[in-house]
């Protein structure tokens, strides 16, 4: 029961990141985790604080995956918060493992159905969107994007982001078929379908 509640909390975070249902996802997370800690019973707020800080750091790592340390510290704090709440390392591992399995299934389902980190990238890349709207260059100045065209990632692709191609100064919205690709990585166009451009590592 506890593992399922914890899993629902993680699923809420997943929905908030991968789908447009941000408020619903955050609501599910808050309710599920509140019920989880109430069900387990807490004597102090320290475990909740540690767990919350760990979860926030993990989410931060999703926004800035190249940072690295945030994710590691986040996992340590999250596990510490759970352990201090439960007081049993075995049950802590069981609850966390069950929640991770459930969440992984949901993530796989969402990705299979076309969801990605687009919502995250909208927040990260909103300044680029503003710059583009202020740019007076017309689309006619942009080169035609074709398959096998080589370029370079101007932002991390998570899996969507910005890429420039050859001598063209304009940046293009693309989707990586290889998942996460670091900024500065050489890429090659895999497929072009309308305005959708998919790329992979060169």
Automatic annotation (TrEMBL):
Domain of life: Bacteria
Locations listed in the record: Membrane
Keywords associated with the record: Membrane, Transmembrane, Transmembrane helix
Region listing for Disordered, in residue ranges: 149-169
Sequence intervals crossing the membrane: 35-60, 67-86, 92-111
Membrane topology: Multi-pass membrane protein
Location of the NfeD integral membrane domain: 3-108
Domain NfeD-like C-terminal: 150-201
Principal localisation: membrane
InterPro entries associated with the record: Membrane_assoc_protease, NA-bd_OB-fold, NfeD-like_C, NfeD_membrane
Protein name per its UniProtKB record: Membrane-bound serine protease (ClpP class)
